Structures are given as structure tokens and as C-alpha cells.
Amino acid sequence: MSRRLLNPRTALTFAILALIVLAFAPPRLAGWVGAFSSPIRTVLAPLSRPFELVLGLRLTDRELSPNESETLSLMRQERDGYLRETNQLRAENDVLRRVIAELQQGLELNVNIPVRQFQAPVIGSSMELSSRLLTVRAGVREGVEPKASVAVIRGVHLVGRVVGEPSDRFCSVLPFTDRSAGPIQGVVMFGPTQFGPACFLEPRGDGSLVGRLRTESVLLPTGAESASLDPAGGDAIGGVRAGMIVRLADESWPQSAQMLEIGIVESVQLLPEDMRIRSVVVRPQFRIDRVSDVTLRVPAPPAPPTPAAAAAGGVP
Amino acid sequence: MRWSLVLIVAAILLGLEQAVKGPLAVGSTTIAPSFVIPLVVFIALFAPPLTAMWTALLVGLVVDLATVWSNGVTELVVVGPSALGYLIGAYFVLTVRALLYRRNPITLMAMSVVAAALAGVFFVAVHSIRMMYTDAYSFPALTELGHRLLASVYTGAAGLVMAFALFPMMSLFGFHDPRERRFGARK
């Protein structure tokens, strides 16, 4: 009997039956299979790396900033960082005013969430192109938290956010351009620090996003408001042009990720059913599914209170 | 068949596939060649049936385990679609191999196209059925089906190139040359 059970033909039949059951099992029943995925990806990463290096398939830092001297590239990166900070500070300034008003009514809000940034290599992508998940070599040990951690390139260009449960050494980043990532809200920038109209973007699956421009002024998660009028005093959505930058303004994303760059407006289209409604096609500046390194922005542990603050707080 | 060599070649091809599939894709579509399907077909052309089917199943299982799906919040691994799809492809080759000129590179190319198409159709069918009761990830079935059928042609091109590397290694794999039986001293 045991010999018959160990027969390769019988074993193959059992394996096929087990795979049929697992292929159709709902996620809550087949979730344990994921435990075998991490070792397989760990083994495959060093096998694919040599090919990537030899064939030059991943976009390195140098390729992300072509025809630029290192100094110019650094300066540009610094400028982008300052612009993002300025926008966020401006928005925070607005929100602080609002917080003061709310605190006076007995409400408490904490908007200043500290983040820690570090560089981490992308060690692999999904074997099937239907899923564009990136495997990044940084995990719980580095403080990566699901949902609260986001990945960027060149400081301000959004890549995606950490999904699932990161392991000790690895985590998975779902690019925001992946169809599975779902819709994302952003705000078109009329100028470096001037908000335009908000937009609701859906990934198209080809690396770009498409969505409608909001005609009304919207309260952004950072506390600022999107524009309903363009700088010339006209309709705001009429002022949107190709080449304008779109920044993240979505409540479902961590507060620390707001105002990161989603991409640039590729085209503005009028909807035939209603000429007042316009949709935009937005494309990230880089092929984010082919980057070799990302900067992870993870929540930083709260700083210990200074002696002065502790004294002010009082000790019971 | 020498399992050790099959494992080494499969590991190299899996690494190659993971590295180059994205960059070789047509635009931002999923139309990209597979390098492991020609290997599965090559083994199905020459190895004993049971060995060929186990190889297809195991290679497909690795592909399934290396593919992580997400809905933006959770991760999910689905085992079965590629493993069973490759098995169907290998089974088809086993069924028709007696009618083929097995040592011809064109045969490997043509069979790679058919096996990849069969595996692709099964893959899309499984995920389409899953979409009826789960929203753990997004899967546009019709687009995927079109892309996978076109990708099978691309896989055929990869199979043709790989034939020139795999056929000279046939003796190393420990396969019996199909011509041996015809001219050998078999009684």
C-alpha cells in the first residue's frame, strides 16, 4: 500500500489535485502558501541580478539623470526636495491654523509625523508581468511598516507603498501605476508652490494614470485647498497644460507622503459627453517598475522628550 | 534524465526570465517572452512522460511562488495557474511528440508557441474564475488573454534561439536520442 502511495504517478495525481484546490481556494484558506514565496524570491534574486547587471536592464541613478553633471543633478535633487518641503510646510502652516482653531474647541490633532529615509536596493520584480510588485531589500529590521512606508526615487518622485507584511529583510512595494494599486488623488501644480485643481487618477496599466480634474476647490489632506480658478482668474481646469507637475494629495496615503511627485501632465482631454469636464493623462517621469534602488520613507520613532519639555509636562 | 543539470538550467533560466521579462516586454504590456516554457517543451520532447510532467509542474510552481499579487493593502500568492498551465503544455507536447521531427529547432519553436498559448489560456481562466469571488487583486481577463496569446508567439522566438543552445546539450541531459531506437540493435 505504502509503495503504491509513493509511486511517482500516484504522487503526481495527488500533486495535481492539491494544486487544483489551491488554485481556486479563497485567499483566507490559501494564505499560508505565501510563506513559501519569500524563500523562492530570496533564491531567485541573486540568480537574476547578474543578468540585470550584465545587460544593464535596471535604471541606475546615472540613467535617471542623463546628460547632467553630478553637481547639477545634486542641485536639482536638492531643489526638488526644498520645493516639496516648502509645499508641505505651507500646507502645514494652513493646517496648524486650523488645528489651533480646533484645539480651542477641545480637539487634538497630530500632524507632524517624523520620517526616516534610507536607500534600499530593488532585488527583484514579479515573475508574471500581470503583477508589478517590487521586492526591496529592507524589512522590519530597518523599521519598514506596511502602508505607512512609501518608496520614492530621487527624493521626491513617488514609486509606491509597502504592501503586505514585510519580512525581517525584505518588503514588497506596489508601484502606484499598477492597476491593483487602485485610484490615487493628486493636485496639479500651476507653479512650484501654487496649487491648481485636484484630480482623481486611475492607473491604466501602461504606466500612466488617467482621471478627471475637479472643478470645485477641494480641501487637500495637507490642509491646503486646491484651486478652482487659474492664476489668470479663469476656470482652474482650463489652466491645466501638458508638462505641469502633479503631486500626491490623498488621504489614504501616509501624511509624510503628501506632496510627493506623481508625475507630469501628458495631455488634457475634453470629455465629449460634457465639454466642461476635462480629464488628464499623467505619467511618472521615470519607469518606476525598472528602478534599481529606492529611497524608503518609514515612520521614525518619536523623539524622546527634552528635559525642558518633560519638566513642563510635570511629573506626578 | 539528469535532474541535477535540469535544476541548474532551470534556475539559470528562471533568473534570466525574472531579469529580462520586463525590459523585453512590448511597451508597458505583459507581452513578453518566457524562457522556461521552451525548457519545459524541450524536456517534454525527449524525457520520459512522468519526468516531463513533474518538471513542468515544479517549474510552474516556482513561477507561481515567485509571483506576488496585491490589492494595495495585502499580498497574495496563488499557486496552481502556472504549474497546471505548464503541465497542460507539457502534456500536449507528450501527446504529439511521436509525430514530430524532435531534433529540429523549428519543432521547439512551434511547440513553445502552442504550450505557452495553452498555459496562458489556463492561467487567464483560473484568475478569471477567482475574480468572481475575490477582490484580492485586479485582473483584466480579456486584455490578459490577448497579451498572453501574443506573448506565446514571442516565446516561440525565444524557443528558436534556445534550441541552438539546448540541442547540443542533449547528451548532457541524459536523454535517449530518438534516432537510436530506429537504427539501434533493439531486439
Structural class given helices, strands, pairing of chain B? mainly alpha
Task: Give the radius of gyration of chain A.
Answer: 24 Å
Task: Report the average pLDDT across residues of chain A.
Answer: 77
Count of helical segments of chain A? 7
Overview of this structure, please?
The complex is a heterodimer of chains A (316) and B (187). Chain A has 316 residues and is an alpha+beta fold. Helices cover 29% and strands 27% of the residues of chain A. Chain A has helices spanning 2-6, 8-24, 27-30, 34-55, 61-64, 70-103, 307-313; strands spanning 115-125, 134-136, 150-153, 157-163, 171-175, 184-191, 194-203, 209-213, 245-248, 261-271, 274-283, 293-299. In chain A, a hairpin with a 3-residue loop joins strand 3 (150-153) and strand 4. The longest helix of chain A is centred in the first third of the chain and has 34 residues, at 70-103. Chain B contains eight helices and two strands. The mean pLDDT of chain B is 88. The longest helix of chain B has 27 residues, at 105-131. Chain B has 187 residues and is mainly α. Chain B is globular, with a radius of gyration of 17 Å. In chain B, a hairpin with a 4-residue loop joins strand 1 and strand 2. Classes of the chains: A alpha+beta (316), B mainly alpha (187). At the A-B interface, helix 2 and helix 4 of A face helix 1, helix 3, strand 1, strand 2 and helix 4 of B.
